[in-house]
Amino acid sequence: MWAPVTKVSIGTELAIVIHGMTATIELDSARRQYSRGTVIFRERDRANCAYVIEKGLIEISTDVEDERRVLATMGPGEMFGEMAALDGTERSATATAVEDTELTLIISDQLRSRVESAEPILKLLLRVILNRFRHEQSLFRHPGNGSYEALTLDPEHDSSRPAIDKIKLESELRSALERRELALHYQPIVNLASTKVEGFEALLRWQHGKLGRIPPQKFIGLAEETALIVPIGRWVLEQACHDLVRFQKHVNSDVSMSINVSARQFSEPAFLGELADVMRRTRIDPNTIKLEITESVLMDYRSAPLRWIEQCKRLGTQIALDDFGTGFSSLSYLASFPIDTLKIDRSFVAAMQKDPRSLKIVRAINQLAHGIGLNVVAEGIEEPGQHKELARMGCELGQGFLFSRAVCFEEAIELL
Ligand SMILES: [Ca+2]
């Protein structure tokens, strides 16, 4: 049966009058107007959009055994029709304008692209909530034997497993500090001419009670993504300084400690105070502490890097630019920031002997750094040939498996 359309008018908007009720569609925007009593969509319609209520009231209802039941009434600021719009299935209820109503239409593609780019765990959360809601709705309609079509959101591949694993690992990492599962290992930084150990880089290790050793690449990124790097970084700073005092007391008062500081720690207002505090308590010579930062720190406007570095220098610590050669490696950083040391990334050192271009790059970085008064540390030295070449070009410091992997405090003290 055809609905008696009594009037259609087209201008900047399309107005359709059915049974005396008007639906107006603005043609050049996503706004829609519905007069009181208009059905916006019906149960079982295929869906390609959701709606946000700008003005008015709408009612969501369903028919149960020929009886109309109202599921919800919604007002300005609320969204409806999102479930079917997300996975393109049928509407599970009918939406009707209770009074003259204005809606903004959000097409399915807009919704889906937002959902697809969301964190896997948020997708999972959304799926769980929407499916639970669908289940409730279906029980309401058919008490005792509700069935519903589960929302998939990401039918191509189920991304929830890695998301759950990650969140579990995050919870474990949260308690790792309290359970004393974190430890610092120390990799020697040696003088390439004499092979004498001049300092150590403090590297974080996690020995999980049940899972065993968790590789740093699995948890350091995670700690940086969450704010966990802040309390962990604070512990690292404290522990590294205490161990440095022990190294200096027992063996060599000149030995230095390189401590990695993430961009996130940098933007923490408390960091500088904590650094000053631990140095005061341990009575450490600040000049023997080298804070290793990456380019991301210099690029992060929130941390106000120049002021931050200047304050660290005022406290007397040294600053090393880590992993140079990866990322942008902008030379302007070297001109703009008062850095003391440049660490040449391991990838260049690894390629140096096979690839003449890498060798030339290492030589050029070395010369450039020396030209502006910086020390150079070569990372990832694994072969005697690399050591020899670096020493020949005047690179003063290096670290890598050739000398030693990162070892616990007791083993490190033996190396001095
Ligand atoms: Ca480092």
How would you describe this structure to a colleague?
The model is unreliable at 1-6 and 8-12 (pLDDT under 50). This protein has 416 residues and is an alpha/beta fold. The termini are far apart. Helix 14 links the parallel strand 19 (375-378) and strand 20 (397-398). The chain is built from 15 helices and 20 strands. It has helices spanning 82-87, 108-116, 120-141, 160-176, 216-225, 229-250, 263-266, 271-282, 295-299, 305-315, 331-336, 346-351, 356-371, 384-392, 409-415; strands at residues 5-10, 13-18, 21-26, 31-34, 39-41, 49-55, 58-64, 67-74, 79-80, 94-97, 101-107, 182-191, 197-208, 212-214, 256-260, 289-293, 318-324, 341-344, 375-378, 397-398. It folds into 2 domains: 5-141, Jelly Rolls; 163-415, TIM Barrel (Alpha-Beta Barrel), CATH 3.20.20. The strands form 3 sheets. Strands 12-13-15-16-17-18-19-20 form an 8-stranded mixed β-barrel, surrounded by 6 helices. It has a 7-stranded antiparallel beta sheet with strand order 1-2-3-4-11-6-9. It is elongated and about 90 Å long. Calcium ion binds at residues 201, 260, 292, 322.
